[in-house]
């Protein structure tokens, strides 16, 4: 375009207007996605808003060249007081030839709100942008299902699903993750929300599933297992084994919420993996709901890979 900076400003303004029509941010939620790459017409750039911090995740070289315009457009949309943080995944930096960003100084995490609950996010050093806004509606679903149930949250990260389940009246919630920093954020968030019915364990998920304990509701939300098509076959086997073991941890009559954020694993393939996992686990599985990301993560119809998140609610016999 003749005026790339003007185009950046216009598309970020349009994206912000769409989020306002979706009711974001709101009085009880201030963690949301302002811009979703191809879905908002700026391929290679996503922007998550975490309280007073806007995190620009950059995966294309053009973003490096136009950072001043990106920052100006974000501040025009959100207010001059917002802090803009730039994040470039190391693999993208190498592939795109982008300069190394300065290592940020250690800082306290920011407090964000989602559906009236408080969470802690690290926009500077945390995974991805520091908080997974895409799972917002799926966390609300788990909250609505949790009352009176024993809930196991696998790959709990900062405790999103676990804390929603606890707030929904679960009898007991255990969150498991191998990351010490993630577990620390989750424990602090549980304390901040005054929840005594949830605890977090720093442990390997596969090992935790070998104990034979049964749960009324199991949530399985692993990190991306397929970075691209070249990783697909290995990822299929990992998803298969993980879901087989997760299904084995669900009590009779219980439910499984299982997710994949690998864009290379398309929806139909993920459902096939779950079918095979249920066969291996000797369980009869019924699909109750197949969901995706929250609506502030729009997808361009010409870029179906943008529909990366799959979240399946299944009932078991």
What features would you describe in this structure?
The chain is an alpha/beta fold. It is built from ten helices and 13 strands. The strands form three sheets. A seven-stranded mixed sheet has the order 9-8-7-10-11-13-12, with helices on both faces. A four-stranded mixed sheet has the order 1-2-3-4. Helix 6 (160-167) links the parallel strand 7 and strand 8. Helix 1 packs parallel to helix 3 (67-78), helix 5 (136-145) runs parallel beside helix 6 (160-167) and helix 9 (232-248) packs across helix 10. The longest helix is centred in the first third of the chain and has 18 residues, at 4-21. 44% of the residues are buried. The mean pLDDT is 96.
Describe the structure concisely.
This protein is α/β, with parallel strands linked by helices. The protein has ten helices and 13 strands.
Structural topology:
Layout: H1 4-21, E1 31-36, E2 45-50, E3 53-58, H2 61-65, H3 67-78, E4 83-87, H4 90-96, E5 110-114, E6 117-121, H5 136-145, E7 150-154, H6 160-167, E8 172-177, H7 180-192, E9 198-202, H8 205-208, E10 215-220, H9 232-248, E11 250-260, H10 267-281, E12 285-291, E13 310-316
Parallel strand pairs: 3-4, 7-8, 7-10, 8-9, 10-11
Antiparallel strand pairs: 1-2, 2-3, 5-6, 11-13, 12-13
Helix pairs in contact: 1-3, 5-6, 9-10
Give short descriptive properties of this protein.
317 residues; alpha/beta; four-stranded mixed sheet; 13 strands; globular
Uncertain residue segments: none
Order of helices and strands: HEEEHHEHEEHEHEHEHEHEHEE
Strand content: 25-35%
The percent of residues in helical segments reads: 25-40%
Distance between the termini: 57 Å
Q: What is the overall silhouette?
A: globular
**Mean pLDDT metric:** 96
Question: Structural class from helices and strands?
Answer: alpha/beta
């Amino acid at each position: 375009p003749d005026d790339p900076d003007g185009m950046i400003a216009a598309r970020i303004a349009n994206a912000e207007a769409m989020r306002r029509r979706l009711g974001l941010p709101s009085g009880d939620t201030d963690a949301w996605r302002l811009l979703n790459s191809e879905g908002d017409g700026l391929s290679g750039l996503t922007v998550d808003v975490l309280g007073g911090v806007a995190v620009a995740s950059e995966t294309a070289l053009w973003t490096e060249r136009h950072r001043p315009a990106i920052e100006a457009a974000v501040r025009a949309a959100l207010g001059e007081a917002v802090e803009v943080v730039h994040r470039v995944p190391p693999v993208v930096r190498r592939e795109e030839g982008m300069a190394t960003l300065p290592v940020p100084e250690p800082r306290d995490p920011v407090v964000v709100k989602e559906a009236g609950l408080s969470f802690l996010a690290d926009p500077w050093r945390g995974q991805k942008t520091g908080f997974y806004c895409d799972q917002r509606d799926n966390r609300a679903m788990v909250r609505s299902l949790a009352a009176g149930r024993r809930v196991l949250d696998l790959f709990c990260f900062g405790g999103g699903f676990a804390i929603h389940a606890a707030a929904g009246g679960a009898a007991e919630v255990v969150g498991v993750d191998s990351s010490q920093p993630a577990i620390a954020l989750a424990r602090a968030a549980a304390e901040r929300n005054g929840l005594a019915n949830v605890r977090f364990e720093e442990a390997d998920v596969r090992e935790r599933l070998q104990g034979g304990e049964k749960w009324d509701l199991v949530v399985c939300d692993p990190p991306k297992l397929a970075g691209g098509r070249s990783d697909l076959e290995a990822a299929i086997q990992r998803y298969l084994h993980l879901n087989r073991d997760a299904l084995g941890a669900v009590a009779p009559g219980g439910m499984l919420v299982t997710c994949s954020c690998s864009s290379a694993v398309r929806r139909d393939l993920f459902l096939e993996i779950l079918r095979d996992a249920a066969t291996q686990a000797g369980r009869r599985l019924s699909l109750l709901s197949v969901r995706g990301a929250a609506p502030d993560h729009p997808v361009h119809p010409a870029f179906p890979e943008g529909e990366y998140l799959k979240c399946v609610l299944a009932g078991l016999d």
